[in-house]
């Protein structure tokens, strides 16, 4: 192997290899499942990507914190002795090296604080992913609700169109009054307006979901394919400190508290004097007292600061304030998590009870009443006003039932998201 090839191989081996980016899954947007949407959130959601970059920056800070101070080299190319004249001035000759020695465990404390901040960034990434997945679930069910509204509005509009055609035939036969046909035509036009409004709502839901999964260009093609979640008995976990501390948002606040504690210890360690060790060699030019020739002088030195005017009171006070603020932020995170879980549990219980009422009785009774009205109208037992009332009632109950399904699905998702646990990553290896 040639020397050039060996150099290239060595250089390639020394270049750090970056971890490959997370692959973007290929999904069918025209039949998008909730699981596929959640995978797209992890790979393409912009807030998640920003949180991932923040974690990478925190990992780089760990490397920086563990770096020891570099030595300083001073080279002096020559010495000018005015008493000897310029002819003997260009005598090369001095070199010095100095090394700062940190004391008080400053480097270890910097690394510990940076590692805690890395763990906090990791927990914040998990919490961002949790929040964006919850937002995606909510947007997904909003789209599913909009699709149901479009379907309901379409069925209603088609039904009115058929009723108008049938009533026109009956009017030609002299079986109904012209006023009945006019009322049906008005209701048919209103049904068309409701269908168009439902289509616009579906487009808004598609755009909202497309942003969360990073598919804005294909928003019009997105269609939710999963069914509504079925009613189930949810076991409400006891909201205790262990449950709260396992959440990623609380874990991030706890890690930042530990980082603030290490930063406080680091600020206190500034009062420990660092020492700078130096060593140098110098060639001395000939002079009136030195007639032998060029000489060589070797020396060592030790330097340290004198704390006569300032002993880092400001840095220590700021670190204490940051530590106290971190304690309060942890308490805020725990309080918000407890409130979120309590609200989610109450919303889930109320949504389940409301949906159960629709599924068990309301929908069946409304459909039965509408069927009776349709049969009676066809046989001339009731007028068009009673028929329109029955249809309006059925349409309202069907839309309310769809909204109840969406409320239950989103409440269930909020409850499950509130129970998310963060598994801390293994601590970074110290350099």
Compact overview of the structure:
With 431 residues, this protein is of the alpha+beta class.
Chart the SSEs and their pairings:
Elements: H1 3-14, H2 34-44, H3 46-65, E1 72-76, E2 94-101, H4 106-172, H5 178-212, H6 241-245, H7 248-269, E3 275-284, E4 295-303, H8 313-378, H9 384-418
* Second-tier CATH architecture: Up-down Bundle
The CATH superfamily label reads: Outer membrane efflux proteins (OEP)
Number of domains: 1
Low-pLDDT windows of residues: 1-21
CATH class: Mainly Alpha
Number of strands: 4
- Overall geometric form: elongated
Pattern of helices and strands: HHHEEHHHHEEHH
The CATH topology label is: Outer membrane efflux proteins (OEP)
Please compute the radius of gyration using only Cα atoms: 38 Å
Number of helices, counting only DSSP H or I runs of 4 residues or more: 9
Protein structure class: alpha+beta
Estimated share of beta-strand residues: 5-15%
Mean pLDDT: 84
**Strand order in space, largest sheet:** 1-2-3-4
Helix content: 55-70%
End-to-end gap: 34 Å
The main β sheet shows up as: 4 strands, antiparallel
Descriptive key words:
single chain, 431 residues, alpha+beta, Outer membrane efflux proteins (OEP), four-stranded antiparallel sheet, 9 helices, 4 strands, elongated, disordered N terminus
């Amino acid at each position: 192997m040639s020397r050039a090839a060996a150099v290239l191989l060595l250089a390639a081996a020394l270049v750090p290899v970056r971890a490959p980016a997370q692959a973007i899954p290929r999904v069918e947007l025209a039949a998008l499942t909730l699981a596929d949407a959640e995978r797209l959130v992890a790979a393409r959601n912009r807030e998640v990507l920003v949180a991932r970059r923040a974690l990478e920056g925190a990992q780089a800070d760990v490397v920086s914190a563990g770096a020891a101070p570099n030595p300083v080299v001073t080279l002096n190319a020559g010495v000018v002795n005015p008493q000897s004249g310029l002819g003997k001035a260009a005598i090369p000759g001095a070199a010095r090296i100095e090394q700062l020695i940190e004391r008080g465990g400053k480097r270890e404390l910097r690394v510990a604080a940076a590692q805690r901040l890395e763990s906090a960034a990791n927990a914040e990434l998990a919490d961002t992913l949790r929040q964006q997945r919850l937002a995606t679930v909510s947007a997904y069910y909003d789209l599913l609700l909009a699709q149901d509204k479009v379907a309901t509005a379409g069925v209603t509009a088609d039904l009115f169109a058929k009723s108008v055609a049938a009533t026109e035939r009956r009017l030609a036969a002299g079986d109904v009054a012209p006023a009945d046909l006019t009322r049906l035509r008005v209701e048919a036009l209103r049904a068309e307006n409701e269908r168009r409004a439902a289509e616009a709502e579906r487009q808004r839901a598609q755009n909202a979901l497309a942003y969360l999964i990073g598919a804005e260009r294909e928003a019009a093609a997105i269609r939710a394919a999963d069914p509504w979640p079925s009613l189930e008995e949810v076991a409400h976990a006891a909201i205790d400190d262990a449950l709260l501390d396992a959440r990623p948002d609380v874990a991030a606040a706890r890690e930042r508290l530990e980082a603030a504690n290490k930063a406080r210890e680091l600020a206190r360690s500034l009062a420990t004097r660092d020492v700078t060790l130096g060593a140098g060699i110098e060639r001395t030019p000939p002079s009136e007292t030195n007639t032998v020739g060029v000489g060589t002088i070797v020396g060592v030195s030790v330097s340290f600061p004198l704390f006569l005017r300032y002993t880092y009171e400001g840095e220590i006070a700021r670190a204490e304030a940051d530590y106290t603020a971190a304690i309060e932020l942890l308490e805020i995170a725990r309080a918000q998590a407890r409130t979120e879980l309590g609200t989610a549990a109450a919303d889930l219980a109320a949504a389940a009870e409301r949906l159960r009422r629709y599924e068990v009785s309301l929908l069946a009774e409304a459909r039965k009443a509408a069927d009776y009205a349709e049969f009676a109208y066809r046989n001339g037992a009731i007028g068009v006003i009673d028929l329109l009332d029955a249809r309006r009632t059925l349409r309202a109950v069907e839309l309310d039932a769809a909204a109840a399904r969406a409320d239950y699905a989103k409440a269930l998702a909020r409850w499950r998201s509130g129970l998310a646990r963060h598994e801390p990553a293994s601590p970074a290896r110290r350099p």
